[in-house]
Amino acid sequence: MDRFYRYVLADDNGTAPCAQHGLLSLATCKPSIRRTAKVGDLIAAFAPSPFPRDMLAYAARVAEVVE
Asked: By 3-state DSSP, what share of the chain in percent is helix, strand and coil, each rounded to 5?
C-alpha cells in the first residue's frame, strides 16, 4: 500500500526540495521521508506562513529511491 507524506516547507532557498525539469529531489531535507519513502508513495508540501493556510507548494509521487 502506498503511503502519503505531508509537511510544511520551512523555507524555500532553492537547495531542497529541489524541483527542476519535472523532477523533485529531497536530497538534503526531510530525512525521515528519505529514510522510509518507497516507489509509489505520495508527498505533498505546503507553503509556510505568511502564505495562506494549506496552500499546496507541490505534490509528487516517488518514482525512484536513490541510496
From this structure: 10, 35, 60
Is residue 24 within 8 Å of residue 44, measured between CB atoms? no
Residue pLDDT, tens place only, 27-56: 777 889 989 999 999 999 898 888 888 899
Specify if 66 maps to a domain.
Answer: no
Q: How many domains does the chain have?
A: 1
Q: Is the pLDDT of residue 3 over 90?
A: yes
CA 16 to chain centre: 9
67 is a domain residue: no
With 0.85 as the threshold, say if the pTM is over it.
no
